[in-house]
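Record passed on here:
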Amino acid sequence: MAHHHSYTEKELFNLIATGDEAAFRQLYATLKPVLFGYIFKLTKSQEAVREIVQESMFRLWISRSKLPEIEHPRAWLLKLVSNECLRYFRKNGLEKRLIGALQQQYTDDSTDDTEMELSYRETRRLIESAVAALSPRQREIFRLSRNNGLRIPEIATQLGLSENYVKKTLILALHTIRRRLTKAGKYLPMFLI
């Protein structure tokens, strides 16, 4: 994909459906302010915003084969994000706070949520299995990065390691996880793992 071209959201959805990671990053960059603002209004938490956006983009990627059928990409993505917000609030026992905010929005359920949910769970299970198979040091660095949201310098400081070592170990862990996912027929952009 040419990086200088500005695509419509519909065009980006069509490109993402073919596995175009550059289109995926462009869609993310284009919609990030909208998504962050929308989610923050509901959650009042930067941590929740990061988690919900990550999970939403993950779900978008695993259901990318359906994207060409979607006529209104932004509305579809906001519905996806709304559903992810609801999951987040349920997981944290806060769903009553969110239900009122979402009841009047996105009542049309045009996606096959069951199929997407099964694919999502299977991919999550594969990632967890791949993480469990990493060396203890790779697993620790991966979890500090992905689960705790720490950056390489913070991980290095916390573990008393060089930043270079942490970076190399994290890259190796990500490549190992990606290889296992690819073997299982699941393909994810690196920043979603």
Observations:
- The first helix runs from residue 9 to 17.
